[in-house]
């Protein structure tokens, strides 16, 4: 069962329920996702870990309401997802800021798009201090480093107080130091605000540094192979023995999935009953 970590804030994020979700990008294609069931408690941080092509981005797009699944349904805060909403925000690797605007203006855009532009003046300063950019409010975003630009995108995403924040490999283009700082800060901010966070990553260490649970996906079709409760303290660093143990645990699960995929060639020359068993996993 999903549990809150020991120092849970009062949750403001919503619970997430994924029920029997499958997806196929067109007739006759191999499904990208099959039978995904997942319950996430409000304010929890969940990492979806899987190889490239295991359907991570597809699942995130479905949660965001950007893709309608071929099967099943998603509920956020008890409400069925049927299209995009400002209460469900996705952050991608590319921060997609408006280059002719200042830092503060870009942060205020999230509120403007949500029809809450009037709140921007009062809230942008707080948001900038949340992401440690208070001194750069008037700078043009083009003058910022990649890590600072991601912080602006994060502040813009948080401005609308999303019930669900989703990150699709958002730090993979950043250098190691910037990435480590953002991993730590994004988790801390989400915990402080109680935001439910779904992080997609192929980086096992990132999952251990940021998440309460690691959901390991198998590919072809994408499906959940393991759901690991990490139970780590809030303060985490790569060298900590507990973090190293969590990384080793996720890696073992990941390798078991990869071994299973290698052991299951597609045109299996196996008698029918056995083929049925082999496919049951
Ligand atoms: P991941 O994010 O884990 O790398 P994706 O969700 O991007 O995986 O892709 C899962 C599968 O769906 C892959 O086989 C990919 O080729 C396919 N796929 C993804 N997007 C599309 C699309 N727009 N049209 C057709 N196939 C797609
Ligand atoms: Mg992807």
Overall mean confidence score, pLDDT? 88
What percent of residues adopt helix (DSSP H or I)? Answer: 25-40%
**Whole-angstrom Rg:** 20 Å
Kindly state the number of beta strands.
Answer: 10
Unreliable stretches (pLDDT < 50, length at least 5) are 1-10, 274-281
- Write the element-wise H/E pattern from the N-terminal end onward: EEEHEEEHHHEHEHEEHH
* Sheet of most strands: 6 strands, mixed
- In whole angstroms, the N-to-C terminal distance is 21 Å
Structural class: alpha/beta
Q: Overall 3D geometry?
A: globular
Strand order across the largest sheet: 6-7-8-3-9-10
How large is the share of residues in beta strands? 15-25%
Q: Which ligands occur here? A: adenosine-5'-diphosphate, magnesium ion
Tally of DSSP helical segments: 8
